[in-house]
Design goal:
This protein is α+β, with helices and mostly antiparallel strands. About 40% of the residues lie in helices and about 15% in strands. It is built from three helices and two strands.
Length: about 90
């Protein structure tokens, strides 16, 4: 079963949110596909996280469009494992 997922459309809204609400414990993980129509926006967003000192893992699934893939449970576990790690 596939379901539509949220889209990253407006990078400036993320920039404003991060500047206004600095949280030193914030971490992220984005799971996307290289065929997602918002993929390039995700690539634009990654440096915004870096500039705001927010570690963010990017998981790109080849051939995936704007849907949850069948292997989403495994990808989600990868994201959870990353988010649970304590900073070095």
């Amino acid at each position: 079963m596939f379901r539509a997922i949220p889209a990253i459309k407006d990078i400036s809204s993320f920039e404003n949110l991060l500047k206004e609400n600095h949280n030193p414990n914030l971490k992220g993980c984005i799971i996307t596909g290289d065929k997602d129509p918002y993929y390039l926006k995700v690539l634009e967003l990654m440096p915004v996280f870096e500039a705001n000192h927010i570690p963010c893992k990017l998981v790109v699934e080849p051939g995936l469009g704007h849907f949850f893939p069948e292997l989403f449970p495994a990808l989600l576990q990868t994201a959870i494992s990353y988010l649970e790690k304590t900073p070095e």
